[in-house]
Amino acid sequence: MDEPDDPLGPLDPGFAGRFDRDERRPSCQLYLISPPAIDAGFADRLATALDGGPVAAFQLRLKGVGEHEIARSAEPIQRLCADRDVAFIVNDSAALAKRLGADGVHLGQEDGDARDARALLGPLVQIGVTCHDSRHLAMEAGEAGADYVAFGSFFPTTTKAVRHRPELSILGWWSALFELPCVAIGGVTPDNARTLADAGADFVAACASVWQHDHGPAAAVASFAAVLQN
After folding, report:
1. pTM higher than 0.70 for the full model?
2. DSSP secondary structure string, 82-114?
3. How many CB atoms neighbour CB 25 within 10 A?
4. What pLDDT, in 10s, does the model give residues 170-205?
5. Inter-helix orientation angle 135-143/169-177, to 10°
6. Strands (E), the chain
7. Residue 158 burial by CB count (10 A; 0-12/13-18/19+): exposed, middle or buried?
């Protein structure tokens, strides 16, 4: 059954236009997500991607894989992220983030409450929450102590099944009213990333457009850098 519409009602598409963008807000940055499956050499592949340009965060997202296996795979990746000053984020599990000493955890709506994650992980670990197309969920996440909220999917994607398609205006609404950063997810490519940044995204999350790029992940990251730094 589909979730009910956002209880806040429809969003005025021109809402954000009533506000001047806060010039203190940093430029939009790239948030890189792992492919759905990785092998023993993935750390080298990630290093190649990071050679292409700046990446703010890397999320290890391995669905259907046991936590012990993820922990084994994570060690060289986490070390690389630390060496490159890239935040290392674990998907879904606050317990795994605690076990690994990760920089952060990203929680879906079925992955527990941000308050519980904060109690487990302490004040310094970054907590992100998927909020789909809901302003209500985003405000709840902020009140629960999240460090960022994520909206999407903005564009068609093969990475996961899409049930929620927010309007671009939700990014402007959020950035106009709240200091907490927002991440735009879903089908993000170098061709559409600037649109998301201009709409108000603080980060754009990319997966397939990097790992399946015709000229390799470094070229993809370089393309993101070119459009986001423009």
Report:
1. yes
2. HHHT-EEEEES-HHHHHHHT-SEEEE-TTS--H
3. 12
4. 999 999 999 999 999 999 999 999 999 999 999 999
5. 30
6. 29-33, 57-60, 87-91, 104-107, 126-130, 148-152, 182-185, 203-206
7. exposed
Per-residue b or e along 212-230, where b marks 16 or more CB atoms closer than 10 Å to that residue's CB = ebeebbbbbbbbbbebbee
Picking from 166, 131, 127, the residue whose alpha carbon sits closest to that of residue 148 is: 127
Residue 33 token pair: 């997500």
Query: Which residues are bridge partners to 205 per DSSP?
Result: 31
- Is 141 within 8 Å of 117 (Cβ atoms)? no
Residue 72: phi and psi, rounded to 5, are: -65, -40
Query: How many CB atoms lie under 10 A from the CB of residue 130?
Result: 22
Q: Which amino acid is at 179?
A: E
What is the CA 3 to chain-centroid distance, rounded? 22
pLDDT tens per residue, range 136-165: 999 999 999 999 999 999 998 776 666 768
Which residue pairs from 127-133 have beta carbons closer than 8 angstroms and sit at least 24 positions apart in sequence? 127/94, 128/89, 128/104, 128/183, 130/106, 130/185, 132/3, 132/163, 132/164, 132/166, 133/6, 133/164, 133/165, 133/166, 133/167, 133/170
